[in-house]
Amino acid sequence: MSPTGNDRRIDYVELAVTDVARARAFYGKAFGWTFKDYGPDYCEFNDGRLTGGFAKTDAVTPGAGPLVILYADNLEDMQRRIESAGGRIAKPIFSFPGGRRFHFRDPDGYELAVWSAK
After folding, report:
1. 103 close to 111: Cβ distance less than 8 angstroms
2. Which of 10, 22, 28, 31 sits at a 20 to 30 Å CA gap from 71?
3. 23 falls within a domain
């Protein structure tokens, strides 16, 4: 059997959240993602390339889990959008080999990053 095009690639990201509606509002406003609800305790998101989900939980351990890194053509604009949506900057924009990035925390305390080649 030959491998599919998705073999050994990230296919889905699931985040445990204490408030599914709040997570949906944050990621919708900050990134323009679309959503499909599966009841009050689960919501699938789609960023136009990758799908994932928000799963309701009673508590979230901030900083637990993988660092998810998103891409933005305009890093400064993305930082403003995240702050406007209620995110907090954890590490201001810095340069690294290949581009620049910053880290932020979403309303549940997850730390994610956004990078740009520019």
Report:
1. yes
2. 22
3. yes
Tell me the C-alpha distance between 42 and 29, whole Å.
Answer: 19
pLDDT digit string (tens) for 6-55?
Answer: 666 667 898 999 999 999 999 999 999 999 999 999 999 999 998 899 99
Q: Which tokens belong to 21? A: 């509606």
Provide the domain count of the chain: 1
Is residue 65 in some structural domain?
yes
- Long-range (24+ apart) CB contacts under 8 A made by 69-73 are 69/101, 69/112, 69/113, 69/114, 69/115, 70/31, 70/112, 70/113, 70/114, 70/115, 71/114, 71/115, 71/116, 72/114, 72/115, 72/116, 73/116, 73/118
- State both tokens at 28: 């919708």
The CATH number of residue 96's host domain is 3.10.180.10
Listed in sequence order, the DSSP H helices in 2-118 are: 20-31, 75-85
Angstrom distance (rounded) from CA 43 to CA 54: 5
Residue with tokens 């997570």: 23
